[in-house]
Write a structure and sequence with these properties.
Helix 11 (357-372) runs antiparallel to helix 22 (604-641) and helix 18 (524-544) packs across helix 19. The strands form five sheets. Strands 2, 3, 8, 9 and 10 form a five-stranded antiparallel β-sheet that branches. The chain has a three-stranded antiparallel β-sheet with strand order 5-7-6, covered by helices on one side. The chain has a two-stranded antiparallel sheet with strand order 1-12. The protein is α+β, with helices and mostly antiparallel strands and 672 residues long. The chain has 22 helices and 14 strands.
C-alpha cells in the first residue's frame, strides 16, 4: 500500500549528446519530462513542429500501409494473439533501421498509391456497367444514338413507355399533322420501348410535340458510335480496369514479407515523434540543453550512475515542494497490484492520501467471489487465467494484471462456491438422479443461500459493515498520519461509537430477531451503557460536524446535517444486498439450465440434449454473471468504500517511454 515517492530531476548535458541521452531515457521509461522555464537570452526552446509534422506523416503512411496489407494479405493470427504482447527487439535493431527507413517509407507510399488506384478503378467499373446496361436495349441499333437525321429528315431516337406496338405508334403519330417517314421499334422491355422515328424536317416540331405527349425520352447515354460498338468498347475498358485491379492487388500481396519492417517503421516513427515532443520542452543553448521533470526516488541512484558512466552530464535530484503537481505512481505486491487499474479508473490518490489498493484488493476478491459464488465457475476462471499467465510470458503488463485479477477472483469464487455448495448450480444432483437413478449431493461446507436466503442476507450486511468500518479506519489512518488527531476523533471515532452502539441496541430488538431468526440477549447494564455512548457520540457529531463555521448557530445546523448522514450509512449497508441478489441469480439460473437439460430424460438422446444445453447455458451464465460481478464489485468499492475516506484527484505518472504498438526494448531495470 504505497504511493511511490517522486523526486525532481534537473539534468544539464552537451547538446551533441542529446540524441543518445533522450533515447536512453526513453527506453528506460522512468522520467516524466516537464516544460522548462521561460526562455531567456541564453536558453531557448526549439520549434519541433515541422519535424513532428513529417514524423506524423510517416506514422500515417505506415499505419495505412499496414492496413492495406492486412486487407489484401491478412496476417494469420491465433485466437489468443492479443496475449502474446509486443516483440522484444534490441537497441542495435533500432539504430540500424535508419539505413532502410527511406526505402520502407517509399514502400508504404507505394502501397498507399496502389490502394488508391484499386479504389478508383473499382469505383469506375460500376459506372461503366451502368452505361452498358443503358445501351443494352439499343445493341441491335446500327446507327449512333446521337443520329439526328439527314438533310431533309429529322430522326428522334429514344424511349417510350412499355407495351407500345408499331402499328399503334404509327397511328398515334399520324395525328400529329406531319408526314412520318419511318417508325422503327428497336426493342421492347417491361421498362421501356426503344424507338427511332424518322420524319420530314418541315414537320419535325409537330412530331416532337406528339412524342412528348406519349412520354418520349432521349437515351441517358449517347455515344458517337453505334451502341454495339460502344458496348464492346466498354466491355474492354472493364476488362482492362479489372486487370489493373488484380495486378495492383497482386503487387500488394507480394510485399507481405515486409509487414514486420512496416510495423517496426510505425514504432520507429512513433518513438521519434515522442522524442521530438520532449525536445520541444527542453531549454537549449548553443552547446547545451537542460531537462527537468520527475523520476521515482527508487530509480535515482541507478539513473545517475548510468548517465555519469556514459556522458559528461550534471544531474541533481531534489524533493518536490508541497505546491507542485507531482505525478502519482502506485507500487503494490503481486496480490494487490492487479486491482491498481480499478483504483486508477476511479482516480489516483491525491496529495496526502494513502494508496487504497492493498486494502481494497482483499475486499475486491472477496466480494467478487460472493457474487459469482459457484465453485465450478471459479475453477474454470482460475484455470483459464492461470494457463494464459503461465504460457504467455511476454504478455503486456496491463493484460497480465487483468488476468491476475480474475485469477484471484476465481480462487475466491471457488472458496465461496464450496462454502455454499454450488457446482454448476445443482448439476451433481440433477445428473445423478436423471442418468443414474439415485440422488447424489455435495453438501455445502457452510449453508446453501438458495435454502436460507435470510441468513445469507444477514451475512452480506455483516460483510458490508466490515467493509464500511474499514473505510472509516482508512480515514482515521490518513488523518492521524497528517497530524490531524482532532479531526480523526471528530470524523471517525465519534462515528465508530455511534454506529457500534446502535448496532448493539439493534441486536437486542425483537424486530431483529424476527428478521434474522437469531435472538441476542443484551444485558441491561450493557444496553444502558451503549445508549449513553450513542447519545454522547451523537452530541459530539452535532457539536463538531460544522466546526469550520465561526457562527455557533450555523455550526449546530451543520452538525445536525452531519448527524443526518447516519441515513447514508443505512443505505450503504443495504447496498450490500446486491451480494445476495447476484449470488442467487447465478445459482438460480444454473439450476434452471440443469433442469431444462434433464427434461428429455436419462436416455442417449437425453444425454446429448443435456450436454448441449449444459454447455450453451452455463457458458452464457458465466459470461453474464462475470460481467455483473465485475460491475457491482467496482460499484461497492467506488461508492460505499471510497466514499468514507477517499477523494482522489492525483495525476498519473506519464514517463517518457517507448509507447509503441508492436515492438519493445529490453532494459535491465524496473520500468515504473
Amino acid at each position: 500500500m504505497a504511493v511511490v515517492p517522486m523526486q525532481r530531476i534537473e539534468l544539464c548535458a552537451l547538446k551533441k549528446d542529446r540524441k543518445k541521452i533522450l533515447e536512453m531515457l526513453q527506453r528506460r521509461g522512468i522520467v516524466e519530462v516537464s516544460n522548462g522555464p521561460d526562455e531567456d537570452d541564453v536558453f531557448r526552446k526549439m520549434d519541433t513542429a515541422p519535424a513532428r509534422a513529417t514524423l506524423e506523416k510517416g506514422i500515417s503512411a505506415s499505419r495505412e500501409a499496414l492496413s492495406i496489407l492486412n486487407r489484401y494479405s491478412p496476417e494469420s493470427k491465433s485466437l489468443l494473439s492479443a496475449l502474446e504482447g509486443r516483440r522484444v527487439t534490441t537497441v542495435e535493431h533500432y539504430d540500424s533501421f535508419a539505413k532502410q527507413r527511406e526505402s520502407m517509407l517509399q514502400l508504404a507510399y507505394r502501397l498507399n498509391t496502389l490502394s488508391e488506384e484499386i479504389e478508383e478503378n473499382q469505383a469506375e467499373i460500376p459506372k461503366l456497367k451502368i452505361q452498358m446496361e443503358a445501351l443494352a436495349p439499343w445493341e441491335s441499333f446500327d446507327l449512333p444514338l446521337n443520329f439526328f437525321g439527314t438533310g431533309k429528315t429529322t430522326a428522334f431516337v429514344g424511349g417510350l413507355p412499355p407495351g407500345l406496338e408499331q402499328e399503334a405508334l404509327e397511328e398515334q403519330l399520324s395525328g400529329s399533322g406531319a408526314d412520318v417517314v419511318s417508325v422503327e421499334i428497336v426493342s421492347s422491355s417491361p421498362e421501356q420501348t426503344c424507338v427511332m422515328v424518322l420524319c420530314l424536317r418541315a414537320g419535325a416540331r409537330s412530331v416532337e410535340d406528339r412524342l412528348r405527349e406519349l412520354g418520349f425520352a432521349k437515351p441517358a447515354v449517347v455515344p458517337a458510335v453505334p451502341p454495339a460498338e460502344q458496348i464492346k468498347k466498354l466491355r474492354g475498358n472493364i476488362e482492362e480496369l479489372t486487370q489493373k485491379v488484380k495486378k495492383a492487388q497482386d503487387e500488394i500481396r507480394s510485399h507481405g514479407g515486409a509487414r514486420e519492417d512496416l510495423k517496426f517503421m510505425l514504432d520507429y516513427y512513433t518513438m521519434r515523434l515522442e522524442k521530438y515532443e520532449v525536445i520541444s520542452r527542453l531549454n537549449q543553448s548553443r552547446r547545451t540543453f537542460c531537462l527537468k521533470g520527475y523520476v521515482p526516488k527508487r530509480e535515482t541512484g541507478a539513473l545517475e550512475e548510468k548517465l555519469a558512466a556514459n556522458f559528461p552530464v550534471t544531474v541533481a535530484f531534489t524533493d518536490p515542494s508541497e505546491e507542485e503537481d507531482v505525478p502519482v505512481l502506485l507500487s503494490n505486491n503481486g496480490f494487490a497490484a492487479p486491482v491498481e487499474s480499478v483504483v486508477e479508473s476511479y482516480s489516483l490518490p491525491g496529495a496526502g492520501e494513502a494508496d487504497p489498493t492493498a486494502v481494497m484488493s482483499i475486499f475486491y476478491y472477496v466480494l467478487f467471489g460472493m457474487m459469482l459464488s459457484d465453485a465450478a465457475y471459479g475453477a474454470l476462471l482460475t484455470v483459464i487465467c492461470g494457463i494464459c499467465l503461465s504460457h504467455f510470458k511476454n504478455m503486456e503488463k496491463s493484460m497480465r494484471n487483468t488476468l491476475k485479477m480474475f485469477f484471484f477472483c476465481g480462487i475466491s469464487t471457488v472458496f465461496w462456491g464450496v462454502m455454499f455448495g454450488s457446482y454448476f448450480g445443482d448439476v451433481v444432483d440433477v445428473v445423478s438422479k436423471t442418468f443414474f437413478g439415485t440422488r447424489l449431493t455435495i453438501p455445502p461446507l457452510w449453508f446453501a443461500p438458495l435454502n436460507q436466503p435470510m441468513r445469507m442476507l444477514m451475512f452480506c450486511f455483516v460483510v458490508g459493515l466490515v467493509h464500511l468500518f474499514t473505510g472509516l479506519a482508512m480515514n482515521f489512518y490518513q488523518l492521524a498520519r497528517a497530524g490531524k488527531y482532532k479531526d480523526a476523533l471528530y470524523d471517525v471515532v465519534f462515528w465508530y461509537l455511534l454506529l457500534i452502539s446502535l448496532m448493539i441496541l439493534l441486536l437486542g430488538q425483537k424486530m431483529f430477531a424476527d428478521i434474522a431468526g437469531v435472538s441476542v440477549a443484551i444485558p441491561s447494564p450493557l444496553s444502558s451503557a451503549v445508549s449513553y455512548t450513542a447519545v454522547a457520540a451523537a452530541v459530539g457529531i452535532i457539536l463538531t460536524g460544522g466546526r469550520e463555521s465561526r457562527n455557533w448557530f450555523k455550526r449546530i445546523l451543520k452538525g445536525l446535517y452531519s448527524l443526518y448522514n447516519i441515513t447514508g450509512y443505512l443505505s450503504d449497508v443495504l447496498s450490500y444486498s446486491r451480494l445476495l441478489a447476484l449470488g442467487l441469480a447465478t445459482g438460480v439460473i444454473a439450476t434452471v439450465i440443469n433442469q431444462m437439460g434433464s427434461m428429455v430424460g436419462g436416455n442417449a438422446v437425453g444425454a446429448v440434449v443435456f450436454a448441449i444445453i449444459f454447455l450453451l447455458g452455463h457458458t452464457m451464465n458465466i459470461g453474464i454473471n462475470l460481467l455483473g460481478a465485475y460491475v457491482h464489485t467496482n460499484r461497492l468499492q467506488f461508492v460505499e468504500f471510497f466514499g468514507k475516506f477517499y477523494s482522489g484527484g492525483g495525476r498519473k505518472f506519464h514517463p517518457f517511454a517507448v509507447n509503441t504498438q508492436y515492438f519493445k526494448f529490453r532494459e535491465d531495470h524496473k520500468n515504473g
